[in-house]
Design a protein that fits this description.
This protein has nine helices and nine strands. By secondary structure, it is of the alpha/beta class. It folds into two domains: about 150 residues, Alpha/beta knot, CATH 3.40.1280.10; about 90 residues, tRNA(m1g37)methyltransferase, domain 2 (Trp Operon Repressor, Chain A, Orthogonal Bundle), CATH 1.10.1270. Strands 2-1-6-5-7 form a five-stranded parallel sheet, with helices on both faces. A two-stranded antiparallel sheet has the order 3-4. The chain has a two-stranded antiparallel sheet with strand order 8-9. Helix 4 packs across helix 6 and helix 8 crosses helix 9. The two termini are about 45 Å apart. About 25% of the residues are buried.
């Protein structure tokens, strides 16, 4: 997959994409990330790319000309998403990451200041995406979030596809608890079922723990999750426990 990122601060991406999974993905030619400095497309001799907003108000707005020239330099086809990272956009989630992972090429525009000229959104941007209901200093960090979330879904990036399948949000359920050595830490032992070697029992325990965590922390996700009769029975038992005022989950 090819990512093209338009930004005022390309150097911000160096440390994030130079380590771990993303670096291995690029080294193995599974992902290519191209950073484009918006200032390189400025028509101003001083490299300025922003101006005061029409109608007054605080802050500055990115001018349309350099953004338009930067996008045109990419020679995009009609199937390439051009995403503007914006607090006004659709909330980013795992399903959106999966949708984007099916693409071969993604362009991300990281805005700054008070935003970008609306005419670029009207004529060039295919989608606005937000990573949460809060405001950051610029679109660079949100762009990193999208690239990381999408890239790790690509074949070969994580190496083991089950790593993706079991993760939180992938099936609209939060992931079950994980344990490793030592067997006892701070007086708390690893649950015995995980040492049993009985994979059916382990899978059943993990499923219940996943349901418990989702029920307690993100019950809204249960409305989207694919649940069988056994799952629904277990959730009903959790509801009954809550009704009785018992906070202790099933063991």
């Amino acid at each position: 997959m090819r990512f093209d990122i338009l930004t005022l601060f390309p150097e911000m991406f160096d440390s994030v994409f130079s380590y771990g999974i993303m670096k291995r993905a690029m080294d193995n030619n599974l992902v290519s990330i191209n950073l484009h400095n918006i200032r390189d497309f400025s028509e101003d001799k001083f490299g300025r790319v922003d101006d005061y907003p029409y109608g007054g108000g605080p802050g500055m707005v990115l001018r349309p000309e350099p953004l338009y020239k930067a996008l045109k330099s990419l020679d995009l086809d009609g199937d390439t998403p051009v995403i503007y990272m914006s607090p006004s956009g659709t909330l980013f989630n795992q399903q959106k990451a999966r949708d984007l992972a099916a693409k071969e090429h993604i362009v991300i525009l990281a805005g700054h200041y008070e935003g970008i000229d609306e005419r670029i959104i009207m004529t060039c941007v295919t989608e606005e995406i937000s990573i949460g209901d809060y405001v950051l200093s610029g679109g660079e960090i949100p762009a990193m979030v999208v690239v990381d979330a999408v890239a790790r879904l690509l074949p070969g990036v994580l190496g083991n596809i089950t790593s993706v399948e079991d993760e939180s949000f992938n099936n609209y359920l939060l992931e079950y608890p994980q344990y490793t050595r030592p067997y006892v830490f701070n007086g708390i032992p690893v649950p015995e079922v995980l040492l049993s070697g009985n994979h059916a029992m382990i899978n059943n325990w993990r499923r219940k723990k996943s349901l418990e965590k989702t029920f307690c922390r993100r019950p809204d996700l249960l409305e989207k999750a694919l649940l069988d009769d056994s799952d629904n029975m277990y959730i009903n038992s959790l509801k009954q426990l809550r009704k009785e005022g018992k906070d202790e989950p099933h063991k």
